């Protein structure tokens, strides 16, 4: 799994920080949280909330943000065997660049964020879309939560091969 933070400006020029936890194998978003002041205590609490009942991953990838330096005890307490940090100035080492880019391009570029509650609501709706409906090329055009895809012949109506277009 990987964890990262990104900043979202509001209409009142305040900055909100979003924490996202992602499972790599299916690009599944596990947890999203929003705060105005990300502290080590808040980050540690979000990690505990994301991994209830000792479901913590073996490895947790994160960047060199100062917030993650203060959560080493929490990471050890969750039985995460290794917290792997990316190299300095190496965003390509973190799978988050794609997820955060998707959140920004497909969601946040199209809404005006007014406050923390509004951002949480928008992100909750986007995560539902991302997990259940949005296709990923790396998943062979499937979504993170796999779904059944019916063949074209299973639909009602004519066989697609027999369709003809009449222009007269």
Report on the structure:
This protein has one domain: Nucleotidyltransferase, domain 5, CATH 3.30.420. The protein has 5 helices and 5 strands, in the order βββαβααβαα. The protein has helices at residues 40-50, 66-69, 72-77, 96-106, 116-132, and strands at 2-9, 15-23, 28-35, 59-62, 82-85. A 3-stranded antiparallel beta sheet has the order 1-2-3, sandwiched between helices. Residues 162-168 have low confidence and may be disordered.
Write the layout of secondary structure elements.
Blueprint: E1 2-9, E2 15-23, E3 28-35, H1 40-50, E4 59-62, H2 66-69, H3 72-77, E5 82-85, H4 96-106, H5 116-132
Parallel strand pairs: 4-5
Antiparallel strand pairs: 1-2, 2-3
What share of residues are in beta strands? 15-25%
| Reported CATH architecture | 2-Layer Sandwich
What is the string of SSEs from the N terminus onward? EEEHEHHEHH
Please state the average pLDDT score: 80
The largest β sheet comes out as: 3 strands, antiparallel
Class inferred from helices and paired strands: alpha+beta
Q: Mind telling me the CATH superfamily name?
A: Ribonuclease H-like superfamily/Ribonuclease H
- The name of the CATH topology is Nucleotidyltransferase, domain 5
**CATH C-level:** Alpha Beta
Bulk shape: globular
Number of distinct helices: 5
Radius of gyration: 20 Å
The neighbouring-strand order within the major sheet is 1-2-3
| Helix coverage percent | 25-40%
Tell me the number of structural domains. Answer: 1
End-to-end separation in angstroms reads 58 Å
């Amino acid at each position: 799994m990987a964890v990262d933070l990104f900043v979202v400006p509001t209409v009142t020029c305040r900055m909100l920080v979003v924490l996202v936890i992602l499972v790599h194998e299916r690009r599944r978003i596990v947890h999203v949280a929003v705060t105005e002041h990300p502290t080590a205590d808040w980050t540690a609490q979000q990690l505990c909330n994301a991994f209830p009942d000792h479901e913590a991953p073996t490895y947790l990838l994160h960047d060199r943000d100062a917030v993650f330096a203060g959560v080493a005890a929490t990471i050890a307490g969750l039985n995460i065997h290794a917290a792997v940090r990316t190299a300095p100035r190496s965003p390509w080492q973190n799978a988050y660049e794609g997820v955060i880019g998707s959140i920004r391009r497909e969601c946040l570029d199209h809404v005006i964020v007014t406050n923390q509650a509004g951002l949480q609501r928008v992100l909750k709706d986007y995560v539902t879309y991302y997990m259940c409906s949005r296709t990923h090329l790396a998943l062979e055009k499937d979504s993170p939560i796999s779904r059944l895809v019916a063949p074209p012949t299973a639909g009602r109506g004519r066989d697609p091969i027999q369709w003809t277009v009449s222009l007269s």
